[in-house]
């Protein structure tokens, strides 16, 4: 019995390490946003009831819960199944059960076309690739809020310099 338990624990640790490596390779390792950074992201998003928020690489779901608190409909996409489970538990046992969803999905395959606001905290060398995805897939006028890193070829429309949070808007097609 002890050997089986030992093997189960080893499998859990090995799979956790595997998903941490996969997340790093995709450009979005789990690095929790500081509380002040999360608050700045929510503030710059200017969320209203019914705003559709997407968090690419939603981690433990803290931004999703903060957005739901503002009345947003929050959807997260996370590659680590352990973090998906944690977010689902936090949403289920919290007061925003109907307003928070999270999917076990690679952010590069996440369906984001309905988003009004997109939150990102991606490694800098993947920002150009993400800019291309966002430009292709979200509607004109969508607000993109980035933690720490900028899109090199996009104009910053708002920022919180203290917390290194930057807001960008997908150009409106005329």
Structural descriptors:
174 residues, alpha/beta, 7-stranded mixed β-sheet, 7 strands
Question: Could you characterize what this model shows?
Answer:
- The chain has five helices and seven strands; from the N terminus they run ααβαβαββαβββ.
- The protein has 174 residues and is α/β, with parallel strands linked by helices.
- The longest helix is centred in the first third of the chain and has 25 residues, at 2-26.
- It has helices at 2-26, 35-45, 62-69, 81-93, 127-137, and strands at 52-56, 73-78, 100-104, 117-120, 143-147, 158-160, 165-169.
- It has a seven-stranded mixed sheet with strand order 3-2-1-4-5-7-6, with helices on one face.
- The model has no long low-confidence stretch (mean pLDDT 88).
- The radius of gyration is 17 Å and the shape is globular.
- Helix 2 (35-45) crosses helix 3.
């Amino acid at each position: 019995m002890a050997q089986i338990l030992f093997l189960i624990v080893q499998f859990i640790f090995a799979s956790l390490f595997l998903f941490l490596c996969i997340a790093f390779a995709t450009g979005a390792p789990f690095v929790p946003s500081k509380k002040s950074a999360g608050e700045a992201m929510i503030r710059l998003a200017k969320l209203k009831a019914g705003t559709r928020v997407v968090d690419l690489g939603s981690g433990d779901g803290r931004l999703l819960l903060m957005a739901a608190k503002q009345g947003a409909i929050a959807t997260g996409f996370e590659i680590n199944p352990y973090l998906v489970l944690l977010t689902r538990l936090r949403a289920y046992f919290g007061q925003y059960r109907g307003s928070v969803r999270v999917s076990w999905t690679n952010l590069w395959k996440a369906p984001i076309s309905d988003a009004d606001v997109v939150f990102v905290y991606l490694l800098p060398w993947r920002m150009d690739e993400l800019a291309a995805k966002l430009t292709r897939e979200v509607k004109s006028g969508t607000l993109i809020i980035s933690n720490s890193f900028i899109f090199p070829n996009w104009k910053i429309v708002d920022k919180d310099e203290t917390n290194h949070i930057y807001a960008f808007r997908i150009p409106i097609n005329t």
